[in-house]
Specification:
The structure holds two protein chains of two kinds. Chain A is an alpha+beta fold. Chain A has eight helices and seven strands; from the N terminus they run E-E-H-E-E-E-E-E-H-H-H-H-H-H-H. Classes of the chains: A alpha+beta, B alpha/beta.
Chain lengths: ~250, ~650
């Protein structure tokens, strides 16, 4: 059991300036998850007649990408390849102080407390993050074999959960790791080939439009990505982009 | 009164016949028809994309910040399809038969057959979208086995199949958003159905960012809002999964089918303490390679790796030699409970059994890899190392998850697992066309009751969600909308919208003004405890009657003493949760009532009064071969309607997996 001090970013809404509040939490078990520790705090705040802290979460299994806390200066906290919801209190010891903030990026405005608006990611997908195939148009699934290593690599890129930690970690707030993961996933598969050129161009254009910064290859994104999306994907995206530019007939 | 609208003719011709004879809507008219889709998990996203492609004007809603985060994303193990790529004797008929049998003969034959038929199209569609299913070295698709079957028909993407399928459907949906065919409303929660002249014509929803109520018209409304396992508080569902949409529809006249049919999944990480907010599944696919056991000796305190082979009781292999570790979920769950109740449980709480990978790590994968790599007489170390690599590829994310939660390394020590609430087979009653008994109101995916009877087989929920959305609703909705083409969009100033919105606002105000002392969470926990203890893995009449009274009391207490902080016109997750818990409380009562009514054991519903001499579930076909469809009358008052089930092809027998 441990007692901890939490410094949490509180902001009533998008227009509020916001600031840190300090809270003490007691009797936290090392088996709790980080979000369960927040549940304990929120229950206490409600009982005291205060406003609980708003944060995004849903699956609590590290797969939906909803949870998004910037913990002691690092998205998703100290563990490697991990999401906030899968961080467990074993990571801390009695007396620790933990500072918790929302993702910070112009393209991710704060809605309330630790909740930010990540719909920019949806709009990037709308710009081309798909294969244009209507329901009912498909041929037999085994008609087109895919080399196992390509399929595995596509899967590894497709494992991105759209959490935005990469953006939060980047000093330029670049979304390139996220974008490159999707471009790679689809470019690696034969099904994705017909739209390769336009996809990379359009997704990058939308990314710029949303106000994400440019990539200067610091690698901060890869280091915090809960799904270990590799920056090799960024190199692939750059190749796709150059190829698209060089061969565009438009 | 309940017309299931099953087409006539032989079972395997019904769907083809239906498709050939249902009414169609021409492209110009489709553009005039508006469809509301609530929920964008697998069922909703696939429906929204497909209907958008067809040219309908679609509005889609979800309460998460993005459709990509629906609970479907968490599905792990795989999706079934009768492709027979393995040449191991699979067929549409076998998938149909396994599903009806697995559901303990409480599902509708015609629906299940259709499901098996379209299963093959789903895989084609997903691969075309770029879903990266696991493949063999030859580049063709790989399969694994799931419980309750003797073939390998499950397609998968490591332990992240739901994620990959949902991303596929989400991308198809976003493409339609970009084309202007679908308007997406995320962070919106539907809070009521608007009825006009006996038809569903729209919804009232709350914008969860600013708290405002909104009105939306639709010629038809589709609920794709998922399951209600969170009525038990602890379940493997996502935190936000809820029954609210289905419950509001129920109170507007839609019948609730088999509400008590709940799936308790045998392999979940056990509860570690009172702080627990949810339970985590360890996919059924692990039973392909993991063997389940407890010590032969009661209260054995040795570490699992110190207990020698001959002192382990592989109780599933012992009791069910034909299916072994791959018996259906209900059977495996009860067997685990039986061992723990008898004092053989392991771990600190003694409410756990072992799931052990060592045997297959060495003998199955290790040896194959060694042979492949030409290693002569490998020692155990080498075999374990080689085996680990393969297991990592198959289930790596699950093993990592287990280690993060428990702090133990499952490659070295056996996992500790225990059953947990996972899925609800019950849901809104729908006919063959997926329409509820309310005209124009459809229900798809886990939210409906239709295809899984009293027990769902593993890897069949993803199949059903996508079947409903991609391949069924595009046909069946046309059959209804063809008669609606002359109906002009009804302005949302219509009095029905006005009144429904007012009722929703009143309820929210009431909740906010109680200003009591107890938190929403504390009520949810208490409800969950009643449900788990008295309407859980084993049920009896006494307990169920007690539970009904306790829930009624809890409801009174809730409405007089709950405390909802904050205000209405802002983001207020506690208010969202309060509305959901209020609905769960009412649902809990109906579940107990349904469980009490069904004095037989079938699938996941185990009535202690109805078991065979060796403790297996005993079905009573002459009394209970029906779907219990409950009609809401007034507070705590329902009327039971029965849809009798007839089995023309899969003749009911007592299930045996021995
Ligand atoms: C951990 C886990 C693993 C699983 N693994 C498998 C597996 O391997 N194979 C398999 O076949 N099945 C599996 N299942 C079951 C399967 O995942 C689900 O049954 C299925 O995904 C449900 O899909 P759905 O589209 O019906 O609902 P969901 O995916 O739950 O989607 C519900 C949607 O409704 C929305 N919604 C709900 N209420 C409202 C409201 N009031 N207003 C607005 N929107 C609302 C939500 O925002 C969401 O978009 C698993 C389940 C769990 C819990
Ligand atoms: S690339 Fe990684 S960090 Fe970025 S959104 Fe995807 S999963 Fe999150
Ligand atoms: S809550 Fe879903 S990834 Fe953390």
């Amino acid at each position: 059991m441990m007692d901890l001090t939490l410094k949490v970013w509180r902001q009533k809404n998008a227009d509020d300036r916001g600031g840190f509040e300090t809270y003490k939490v007691k009797d936290i078990s090392s088996e709790m998850s980080f979000l369960e520790m927040f549940d304990v705090l929120n229950e206490e705040l409600i009982r005291e007649g205060k406003d609980p802290i708003a944060f995004d979460h849903d699956c609590r299994e590290g797969i939906c990408g909803a949870c998004s806390m910037y913990i002691n200066g690092r998205p998703h906290g100290p563990w490697h390849a991990n999401t906030t919801c899968q961080l467990h209190m074993r990571a801390y010891k009695d007396g620790d102080t933990i500072v918790v903030e929302p993702w910070r990026a112009n393209a991710f405005p704060v809605i309330k407390d630790l909740v930010v608006d990540r719909t920019a990611f949806d709009r990037i997908i709308q710009a081309g993050g798909y294969i244009s195939v209507n329901t009912g148009n498909a041929v037999d699934a085994n008609a087109m074999p895919v080399e196992k290593d390509k399929a595995d690599a596509a899967f590894a890129a497709a494992a991105c959960i759209g959490c935005g930690a990469c953006v939060a970690a980047c000093k330029n707030s670049s979304a390139l790791l996220f974008v490159s993961a999707k471009v790679s996933h689809l470019a690696l598969l034969p099904q994705g080939a017909p739209e390769r050129k336009t996809r990379a161009m359009n997704m990058v254009a939308q990314m710029d439009k949303e106000g994400f910064g440019s990539c200067t290859n610091t690698g901060a994104c890869e280091a915090v990505c809960p799904k270990e999306i590799s920056i090799e994907n960024i190199a692939r995206l750059n190749r796709e982009y150059i190829m698209a530019g060089a061969t565009s007939d438009k | 009164m309940l017309d299931s609208k099953i087409p006539s003719g032989p079972l395997d011709d019904k769907w083809t016949y239906y498709k050939g004879h249902c009414k169609l809507v021409n492209p110009a008219n489709k553009r005039k028809l508006e469809v509301i889709i609530v929920g964008t998990g697998l069922a909703g996203a696939s429906a929204a994309a497909s209907l958008g492609e067809l040219g309908y004007k679609v509005k889609a809603f979800c309460f998460q910040d993005s459709p990509r985060r629906a609970h479907s994303i968490a599905a792990q193990g795989g999706i079934n399809a009768a492709k027979n790529y393995q040449n191991d004797g699979d067929s549409v008929f076998r998938l149909f038969y396994d599903t009806v049998k697995g559901g303990d003969y409480r599902a509708r034959e015609a629906n299940v057959h259709r499901l098996a038929e379209v299963s093959v199209n789903i895989i084609d569609q997903c691969v075309a979208q770029g879903v990266p299913f696991a493949r063999e070295y030859g580049g063709l698709l790989n399969n694994r086995s799931f419980g309750g079957t003797q073939v390998k028909r499950t397609f998968y993407a490591a332990g992240q199949t739901g994620q990959q399928l949902l991303i596929g459907a989400y991308q198809a949906l976003e493409r339609q958003v970009a084309l202007g065919n679908v308007q997406m409303y995320s962070r919106h929660e539907m809070l009521d159905i608007v009825m006009i002249e006996g038809k569903a014509r729209g919804i009232i929803c709350r914008n969860l960012v600013n708290g405002e109520l909104e009105r939306h018209f639709g010629h038809a409304v589709l609920l794709c809002t998922g399951g209600y396992g969170n009525v038990f508080y602890l379940s493997t569902n996502a935190m936000g999964s809820n029954v609210t949409a289905a419950w509001k529809a129920h109170k507007k006249g839609a019948f609730f089918g088999n509400p008590c049919f709940t799936q308790i999944h045998p392999t979940c990480i056990p509860v570690s303490g009172d702080h627990q907010s949810k339970l985590t599944l360890m996919s059924e696919s692990l039973r392909n390679d993991g063997r389940i056991w407890v010590p032969k000796q009661k209260g054995d305190t040795r570490k699992p790796n110190d207990i020698p082979e001959e002192e382990r009781d592989y109780y599933l292999e012992r009791r069910y030699p034909a299916f072994g570790n791959l018996v259906p979920r209900d059977v495996a769950s009860r067997a685990a409970k039986e061992r723990c109740d008898a004092g053989y449980g392991v771990g600190t709480t003694k409410q756990a059994v072992y799931l052990d990978f060592k045997f297959n790590l060495i003998n199955k994968y290790g040896k194959t890899e060694a042979t492949k790599q030409g290693i002569q007489d490998p020692d155990t170390e080498t075999l374990i190392r080689l085996g680990k690599e393969v297991v990592k590829e198959e289930y790596g994310n699950l093993f990592d998850m287990y280690e993060k939660i428990t702090g133990e390394n499952p490659y070295e020590v056996p996992m500790r697992i225990y059953p947990a609430v996972h899925y609800t087979m019950g849901g809104l009653w729908v006919d063959y066309e997926l329409m509820t008994n309310v005209k124009g109101l459809y229900c798809l995916g886990e939210a409906n009751f239709s295809d899984h009877g009293a027990n769902r087989l593993g890897a069949s929920a993803l199949m059903q969600g996508l079947a409903d959305g991609y391949f069924v609703i595009p046909y069946t909705i046309g059959n209804y909308l063809a008669d609606e083409i002359s109906v002009k969009p009804i302005p949302t100033s219509h009095e029905a919208f006005e009144q429904t919105e007012k009722a929703v606002a009143d309820r929210i105000n009431t909740l906010m003004n109680i200003k009591g002392k107890q938190t929403v969470e504390s009520f949810h926990k208490r409800l969950g405890k009643i449900m788990w203890e008295k309407c859980g893995m084993a049920r009896n009449a006494n307990h169920l009657q007690e539970a009904i009274i306790e829930i009624q009391q809890l409801k009174k207490e809730f409405w007089t003493d709950v405390r909802v902080p904050g205000t209405i016109n802002e983001m207020n997750p506690e208010l969202d949760k309060a509305g959901r818990v209020a609905d769960f409380i009412e649902l809990g009562e109906l579940m107990c009532k349904d469980a009490l009514n069904r004095n037989e054991s079938c699938g996941g519903h185990f009535r202690e009064e109805s078991q065979t001499a060796d403790g297996e579930a005993e079905r009573k076909d002459n009394e209970y071969a029906y779907v219990a469809a409950w009609e809401y009358k007034t507070d705590s008052n329902w009327e039971l309607h029965k849809e009798n089930l007839t089995f023309e092809v899969a003749k009911p027998t007592q299930r045996s997996y021995k």
